[in-house]
Each structure stands twice: as structure tokens, then as C-alpha cells.
Design goal:
- The protein has two domains: 17-410, Rossmann fold; 420-514, 2-Layer Sandwich (GMP Synthetase, Chain A, domain 3), CATH 3.30.300.30.
- The protein is 31% helix and 24% strand.
- It has 17 helices and 25 strands.
- The strands form five sheets. Strands 1, 2, 9, 10, 11, 12, 13, 14, 15, 16, 17, 18, 19 and 20 form a 14-stranded mixed beta sheet that branches.
- It is globular.
Length: 523
């Protein structure tokens, strides 16, 4: 197995099987308490039943991969399910590494990821069996299991796992980044990372044993697999697993009094789809404490719309490399007063805002967000150069820009790589996008800077219009009324869709590649 990159060790002591395994304690004190509900099938598992399956999964893996292979890698290709939760937690208990694959990727993209992590086992939902047949022969796999039910049936005859304590800094998950810049990187998540990240979200999101969380977001993303699933199980709540986002079904689940969903998680595009649905009925969502948002910039107008319906749209900021980093409190008055903020630092994560010369910026100034703490990854799988470049004196450089106000709340102007300079002035595309998104003719938007002979760089707005009758001149006039001259895009390009990752981030490198002929001149 690849050696895990070394960095400054976290200050909390070593954690073993009994403490960082999210099920052991709950299975002891509340074995009959409901742990999982599968929305598509209605299947349920108690904490005792889930713990039993996880232990047998670990036993199955121990038999399939004896001690000669210390940390076997298990890849999983499938939609959210009870089976995936069992496989993920079973890997951790055995000391294996779970690799949830993005089922939205093409065969070629999946092959690239699998060639990097070289899994020993591939578990595939029946839905993706054709893809499995295409990629399986290219890998030196010990075992391929097709069908989630087939995998669970194998566990029934497996022995419960009774292995040794496993060190806290043992990798348990590899999450491949969504690819906003191109080639995905495998983020190593250790047991300590996963445990600390879950504690972070439990505290900022006020998750308890009485919480009921609904997960539409895919488990191949840190929000789904850690912030939602692991946190809920660690705290003893109920996790409702959804295999896909469908606005009507989601609203039905949120309004179901028998479920009593208290916490729901979404990216901005999902939240917007819920609110424009003809089935939107905020009065039916009385049990809901908040809708938690992450992954992409959140417009103040969307926050205001939910507040008008008496629902808190709680903004936050996180990443695969660190889990939950920043978070707004569950306080509607504070959310209303600070609509653009992503909140305070999570308790187990230290946050710095750093200038290009390596010094901390003062309040009100923009700096790159640097992180340190037990939730932060030790690095990237098979990428020592990228790992070394990501850390400075033990601090992880996020590549995102932040600004702190006098109250300690942090705002995210944009990503460092997305900022461009026009006429000597810094332009943050997220700010321009927020303005354009308020125009009634705009369904979605992404802004990039392209070379300009006169200004160095100028903005181009790629817009998904509400109707074919939308006019670029109207959108440019709207920008002229709301933005300083140097911030205004010089051209609007209408497109059918904005390519986005599973977390909602615009894949601007794809826009650049697909629209290299977008000449930034006024129409």
C-alpha cells in the first residue's frame, strides 16, 4: 500500500476501533433504535442490525483479503443505498479503504480513476453492470460483485469480524475530487479525519440522536458520505437514504409526518428546484430545522426567498480535503443579517486568511483560506508533488478566497483560480454571477475571464436563458446598473446548460474548452 503522506500531527490523541467507529457505541446503548430507512424500497435497519451487517462485511473482507494485504481497496459504483453504507463502514472496521465512484462519469473517466487507485474489489449496482463489464477486464481485480443485493447475501454466511484495533491515521476512504479543473485527485480520508469531520458537522449543524436526516446527495461526495451519513449515525439519529434527487419525491419525504425529517442537505440548484416546484408547500415542513447548503455560491435572493417562507437556508463551506470547514448558525435572524456569509470556523478546524506574501490579512481584506486540524487530509493518493504543493508548514492551502468581517463571520468572494484581472482590477466571477442570476431571464450562469488585448482579461457570461426570447443586451444593461465598469462582462453567450459537478460547482474548464471562440467584445 502507498505510504500515507506525513504532516503535522493533530493534537487529539490516538483513536481506535471503539471510538472512531460510528456504530459501536450506538449498537450497545440503542440497538433497537432505527438507523437507516431506504426511501426507494422502504427497507429499514436498526442500529443493532446495521452493526451486525457491518461486522459481517468486515469479516467477509478479512477472509477475502487476509493479513498479507493490510489495507485492501474496495471500489463501489452505485447509487445511494443501505448496501453502500454497509460496505463503507465494513471497510473501515476491517481496515480496508472504501472508494465510492461517481456514477455520472463516462467509462473513460472511471477507467482513469480506477487506474490510479487500483482497487482489489469492485462492487457494482446492477444498473451499472454494462459499465462494469467494460472497465472490469482492464483491472487486476481479485473480485467483482455485481448487484447490491448479491453483495448483502454474501454477508449472511460471513463470520463477524474480531480483528485488532486499527490506528487512527489509517486511511478508510478515498474521495476523488469532482474535477472543476480537470483531472480528479484522490483525497485520502483517514479514520481520524472522518471522525473529526463528523464531530464538526454535528456541532455546527446541531445533529443529535433525535435528528432525522434526508440524503439526496450522492455518497461519492463528502457531503453525502461524511457530513450526512456518518454524522447522523455517529450521533444516533435516523438516516433516510434517497437514491436520487427528484423534487416531487423529496418534498413528499420532507412533508411526511411519520418520518419527521429535521435536516435536509442540498446544493443551490436543488434548493431552487424545490422552491419553484408546483408542490412546494412550506407549511408542511414544520419538522424541518433547516435546509443546509454547500458546494457552490448561494445567492442572497435564494436565501431571502426561503426566509420569507420561514425556512432557514443555512450556508456553509467545505471540501473533500477537510469536510465541514465553515458554517452559519441555525439562526434565521443572523442568516437574514449576513446573507452572503458562510459562517464561522468549525470547532475542530483552524482557519487562516493569508495574503500572497504568506502573512495573515486583516478584517475586511481578502486572503486565501488555509486550514489545519484533525479533519484535514494528509494528502492525495499517488500524488506526492500535488500533496507537497498543497501544504505550507502544515497548513492546507484551499485555493479559495475568504474575507472576515468584524464579527468573525467569513465570506467567500471566489476561488483564487477563478479570479481574473481586468484593467488592473481584481474581478471575482461569483460576485458577477450573483448579480446576473437576479435577472428574470436567467436560469443559470457562469462567468469566466478570457484574454483581452485592451484590458488584459475581460468577463464572458455563459447564460442558460429561461426562454429563447432572452436578449443579451438586457442582461448587459442589468449588469451596468448593478456593477462597477471593470466588473461588467463584455459579452453574454447563451448555452443550453452549465456543466456542474455533483456538488454544484461550475466546471469552468469545460466552458473554456467548449467556447474558446467566445470573443469578449461588446455586442
Amino acid at each position: 500500500m502507498q505510504e500515507v503522506p506525513q504532516r503535522v500531527q493533530a493534537e487529539i490523541g490516538p483513536v481506535g476501533l471503539e471510538t472512531d467507529d460510528p456504530l459501536v457505541f450506538r449498537a450497545k446503548i440503542a440497538p433497537d433504535h432505527q438507523a437507516l430507512i431506504e426511501a426507494a424500497t422502504g427497507r429499514e435497519l436498526s442500529y443493532g442490525e446495521l452493526d451486525e451487517l457491518v461486522s459481517r462485511c468486515a469479516g467477509f473482507l478479512a477472509k477475502a483479503f487476509p493479513d498479507g494485504e493490510d489495507h485492501p481497496r474496495i471500489a463501489y459504483l452505485g447509487r445511494n443505498s443501505i448496501t453502500e453504507v454497509v460496505a463503507c463502514l465494513g471497510c473501515q472496521r476491517r481496515g480496508a479503504i472504501f472508494i465510492p465512484l461517481n456514477w455520472r462519469l463516462s467509462t473513460a473517466e472511471l477507467q482513469q480513476i480506477l487506474a490510479d487507485c487500483r482497487p482489489h474489489m469492485l462492487i457494482v449496482d446492477q444498473e451499472f453492470s454494462v459499465i462494469a463489464g467494460e472497465i472490469g477486464p482492464t483491472l487486476p481485480l481479485v473480485l467483482t460483485v455485481v448487484g447490491a443485493e448479491g453483495f448483502l447475501s454474501r454477508l449472511k454466511t460471513s463470520d463477524r469480524y474480531a480483528g485488532p484495533q486499527i490506528p487512527a491515521d489509517t486511511p478508510c476512504i478515498i474521495l476523488y475530487t469532482s474535477g472543476t479543473t480537470g483531472t480528479p485527485k484522490g483525497v485520502i480520508i483517514t479514520r481520524r479525519n472522518a471522525f473529526s469531520s463528523s464531530i464538526n458537522f454535528a456541532l455546527v449543524g446541531e445533529v443529535t440522536a433525535r435528528s432525522v436526516t434526508l440524503c439526496d446527495l450522492p455518497f461519492f461526495h463528502t457531503i453525502g458520505i461524511i457530513a450526512i451519513a456518518r454524522t447522523t449515525l455517529l450521533m444516533g439519529g435516523r438516516l433516510v437514504i434517497s437514491d436520487r434527487f427528484q423534487p416531487e419525491r423529496t418534498l413528499s419525504l420532507l412533508a411526511d409526518p411519520a418520518l419527521g425529517v429535521t435536516h435536509y442537505f442540498a446544493v443551490p440548484q436543488m434548493a431552487s428546484a424545490l422552491r419553484v416546484s408546483p408542490h412546494w408547500n412550506p407549511a408542511a415542513l414544520k419538522a424541518l430545522r433547516a435546509i443546509f447548503i454547500g458546494g457552490a455560491p448561494l445567492s442572497p435572493a435564494l436565501i431571502e426567498g426561503f426566509l420569507q417562507d420561514d425556512i432557514a437556508l443555512v450556508n456553509g463551506y467545505g471540501m473533500s480535503e477537510a469536510g465541514t470547514v465553515l458554517h452559519m448558525p441555525l439562526d434565521k435572524d443572523m442568516i437574514a443579517a449576513h446573507r452572503g456569509s458562510v459562517g464561522f470556523a468549525a470547532p475542530l478546524t483552524d482557519v487562516r486568511l493569508v495574503s500572497p506574501d504568506g502573512t495573515d490579512v486583516t478584517d475586511g481584506e481578502v486572503g486565501e483560506i488555509w486550514l489545519q486540524g484533525p479533519a484535514v487530509t494528509p494528502g492525495y493518493w499517488n500524488k506526492p508533488k500535488e500533496t507537497a504543493a498543497a501544504f505550507v508548514d502544515g497548513w492546507y492551502r484551499t485555493g479559495d478566497l475568504g474575507r472576515r468581517d468584524e464579527t468573525g463571520l467569513i465570506y467567500i468572494p471566489d476561488r483564487l483560480k477563478d479570479m481574473y484581472i481586468s484593467g488592473g482590477e481584481n474581478v471575482f466571477p461569483a460576485e458577477v454571477e450573483a448579480v446576473i442570476a437576479t435577472h428574470p431571464a436567467v436560469r443559470d450562469v457562469a462567468v469566466i475571464g478570457l484574454p483581452d488585448a485592451r484590458w488584459g482579461e475581460s468577463g464572458v457570461a455563459f447564460v442558460v436563458p429561461v426562454s429563447p426570447q432572452a436578449l443579451a443586451e438586457d442582461i448587459l444593461s442589468h449588469c451596468a446598473a448593478c456593477l462597477a465598469t471593470f466588473k461588467r462582462p463584455l459579452r453574454v453567450v447563451f448555452v443550453e446548460t452549465i456543466p456542474r459537478t455533483a456538488s454544484g460547482k461550475a466546471q469552468k474548464h469545460i466552458l473554456r474548452q467548449s467556447h474558446v471562440d467566445a470573443d469578449p467584445r461588446p455586442l
